[in-house]
Amino acid sequence: MAVKAEEMGFDRVWAVEHHGLKWYSHMSTSEIFLTWVAARTSRIRIGHGVVTLPFGYQHPVRVAERTAMLDVLSGGRLDVGVGRSASPREMSLFGVDAGTSHEQVEEALRIVTGVWQGNASGWNGSLNIAPGEVFPRPYQDPHPPIFTACTNEAALRSAANRGLGALVLGLGDLDLLRRRRAVYDEARAARTNRDLLTPAVNDHFAVVCPTVVLDDAAEARRIGVRGQQFFVESARHWYADGPPPNLDMAADGERGLRALERTVRKEMETAGVPALPQYVAAYNTHHPYGTADQALSRVRELADAGADDVMCLVQMGGVPHAVCMETVRQWGEHVIPHFR
Q1: 163-221, pLDDT tens digit by residue?
Q2: Which of 73, 81, 111, 309 would be 206's cystine partner, CB 3.0–4.6 Å?
Q3: Cis peptide preceding 136, ω within 30 of 0
Q4: Distance between CA 298 and CA 279 in Å, rounded?
Q5: pTM of whole model > 0.90?
Q6: Domain range enclosing 328
Q7: Is the distance from CB of 311 to CB of 45 less than 8 angstroms?
Q8: Of 145, 160, 151, 148, nearest in space to 50 by CA
Q9: Which among 254, 283, 312 is the end of a domain?
């Protein structure tokens, strides 16, 4: 898919990082996958979306070394998104303290960017790093663009305040996207130079766009919505202690998502939690599951709502590989050329 995406004119391929989550994501060694992609391509950018930074997952100096090496080997094509991978299963698997994970990500980020710029010596924080330079240094000067996972308004403010790109990882509607863009821009306008993580500011706002595109619009929607149901049920299982996903890929995704949405709304009502849009965004199905013309219209809507970059989410649950490849082809031939 990544090789085909380069051929079709896509700008980036992103790889997540998750551990021990059956059904949800089996991409546990994204740096190896991205190195393989870099070796088989020449133009497309390669991105960690995201690399996990709490100390239990991996030491920040190792993250700095691996990403710098990949940036060198790819000729400066790396984007580095960061996050904390907050499912209880993953955190317990690696002994990560959820209570301090946000602070660990912040500390790790400062270590990684310091190492990249040759300033690793004498770090005094939770991790005591001895003096000494670390190699290699990144190909890009002063380092690869940095992004961070943004699933709520607090994360958006933090990203914008520190000069980091936003990976908006939700399935919400256009109104929610507009609000999130406004939050990001408001924080950007209020920041000072002292707020910035590094001088290399990255004000890039990328949004997830689930999509399946085929000539047969009805079949594309059937497959896409069913894939979304599998994706949402798997996430709910690992992040909210829900039941395992429905493994019958012939099931009616529309019906399954609506039933799950009713269940979640009832749970929130019982718990006294308001049904705000961000809580039910996963059940929005107004995505380009259809023809290339529908995908083209959706990109225009996303751009108008503030997206700088559209991250096509295609491999959801049981979406067949041939359908994934056809979706990449359709986007490349019929959608991307309109935005060049």
Answers
A1: 999 999 989 999 999 999 999 999 999 999 999 999 999 999 999 999 999 999 999 99
A2: 309
A3: yes
A4: 22
A5: yes
A6: 2-213+288-339
A7: no
A8: 148
A9: 283
